[in-house]
Amino acid sequence: MPKTWFITGASSGLGLEMTQQLLTQGHNVVAAIRRAGALTKLAQEYRERLDIVQLDLVEPERIASAVRDAFQRHERIEVIVSNAGYGLFGAAEELTTEEIDRQIATNLAGSIHLIRAALPLLRKQGGGRIVQVSSEGGQIAYPGFSLYHATKWGIEGFVEAVAQEVAPFGIDFIIAEPGPTGTNFGANLVRAKPMDAYDETPAGAVRRAITDGSFEIKGDAARTVSAIISAAESKTPPLRLALGSTAYSSISQALSARLSALEAQRGVANSADRQDL
């Protein structure tokens, strides 16, 4: 049966790919985009099933009204996809206050406001599903992406808590964690002004790899989106969905290393308990 999906960041990258796949499959899409006119061709082809909304996630009040209006226009919205965001690259010391604030406002606060706006409406209709597009960078970290990781680790913690809060209402979540994927993410990457002091550091090495194209990208955008859609349409999807061999390998290694480090601290951890219990 056709469903209605609400997707932010629908004009490029994974959001655009998802919008195209869903429309091709016969679904309805409320496509939230920041730049007016970005989906003109799709609108002409799918005018009856594509509802375009202009929305910038740094405007919390606009998010709330856009979500509320979308639910009023459509009988039911089954899936909310929080996808909009971008990457900020630079060693922490290289970043400006404005760059930091914009990254957090878009990737973290914007996603939080979107989810909060959708919850009462999903409760009212008796349930629904929220897909939060995160990244392998929600569980691991590359040097030079500290603020990007702060937003992805942050939104994953938020979602994991909220998922427990709203499960009784028939609302569940998927946290999609793609590895490096062939989209325009790199082209849209905001880069801080580099400092010479970081040239011969891990941050400098990653900067060079991104610049010269040697940063390995194995993920396929169409396959990644297809996997997310399949998970969203399944009866009992996983809370976290690793996508791509790089994501699977890097997350697995990070979790194993953290578990090993934790086990080595068992005695110290237990020693911090109260002794009068």
From TrEMBL:
<dbReference type="Pfam" id="PF00106">
    <property type="entry name" value="adh_short"/>
</dbReference>
<comment type="similarity">
    <text>Belongs to the short-chain dehydrogenases/reductases (SDR) family.</text>
</comment>
<dbReference type="InterPro" id="IPR002347">
    <property type="entry name" value="SDR_fam"/>
</dbReference>
<dbReference type="InterPro" id="IPR036291">
    <property type="entry name" value="NAD(P)-bd_dom_sf"/>
</dbReference>
<dbReference type="InterPro" id="IPR051911">
    <property type="entry name" value="SDR_oxidoreductase"/>
</dbReference>
<protein>
    <submittedName>
        <fullName>SDR family oxidoreductase</fullName>
    </submittedName>
</protein>
<keyword id="KW-0560">Oxidoreductase</keyword>
